[in-house]
Write a structure and sequence with these properties.
By secondary structure, the protein is mainly alpha-helical. The chain is built from seven helices and three strands, in the order αααβααββαα. Helix content is 60%, strand content 7%.
Length: 182
């Protein structure tokens, strides 16, 4: 099977859309839309690339997140509810991931002795090898991806993206945080 080439995302909105929006948007709003388009297409490209990176080791970014949390626990059993909380997903999502990782021989789960409702997850030797391989190969990929940024530029980028993310969690009227949907 040959490796498929990830799609390339356009770096700007289609010309016809830009022209049509000029009639509705102020210059500042046009600038905001263009920035949004670049950030969104960059996020899509990054997501696709990261998924491609994971394909030869952990299989998916979500599986990698679970495996690296267990790796960082250094052999201590980690409650699945803690994994779910760290990933910002439901326990059911983690349960599904854990079942697949157990079938693949990468993790084991046992019932906690102090709380029979809680399962503690740990890496197997095979799981640890998968994490080590993924960390090493992705370390080199990250260096290559960020090679054009100085440490100061990377700090600035991170700060700006965090502010951008916070802006999207604000309510439409610009006050406070948006209410989370249940």
């Amino acid at each position: 099977m040959s490796a498929r080439k990830p799609p390339q995302f356009p770096t700007e909105p289609p010309r016809a859309l830009t022209v049509a929006l000029r009639e509705r948007f102020s210059a500042r709003e046009q600038q905001m839309f263009e920035a949004l388009f670049v950030v969104r297409s960059t996020a899509q490209q990054m997501d696709n690339t990261i998924s491609e990176w994971m394909a030869d080791s952990a299989a998916t970014p979500a599986r990698f997140q679970v495996l690296t949390q267990l790796w960082a626990a250094k052999g201590r059993g980690l409650p699945q509810k803690d994994i779910a909380a760290a990933m910002g997903v439901t326990r059911a999502t983690v349960s599904g991931l854990m079942a697949a990782l157990e079938r693949d021989g990468l993790v084991t789960s046992i019932v906690a002795s102090d709380d029979r409702r809680s399962c503690l997850a740990s890496l197997t030797r095979k799981g640890e090898a998968v994490v080590e391989k993924a960390i090493e190969s992705n370390k080199a990929r990250l260096r290559a991806a960020y090679t054009m940024l100085t440490p100061d530029e990377l700090t600035t980028l991170t700060t700006l993206l965090e502010r951008f993310r916070q802006g999207f969690s604000a309510r439409p009227d610009g006050t406070g945080k948006r209410a989370r949907k249940p």
